[in-house]
Amino acid sequence: MLLEHQCAFVNYTKKEDCERAIQAFNGMVVEGAPLSVRYPSKGAGFGPGLYKKECFFWRTTGCTRQDCTYRHIPEHKNIDKDKFTSRLAHINM
Ligand SMILES: [Zn+2]
Question: SUPFAM superfamilies recorded for this chain (predicted)?
């Protein structure tokens, strides 16, 4: 929730949940300000890639495959790297 922008981003894993949320919150008035809920105008995880599994390597050590069939979400790049490397360190002990 970015209050200064009066804007919030919500990620749903299921399209049905997302649609339900749009129906529930769209047009709702919160503290005098009507909410406008809609899909992101372009990209942002929706579209054909929606149901694809996220790329494990993208989230950990980095994925360099041009033809990778898994999702590469920019915000998730290397997000699990610490978890992944600490797990490896644990195994090595
Ligand atoms: Zn990948």
Answer: RNA-binding domain, RBD
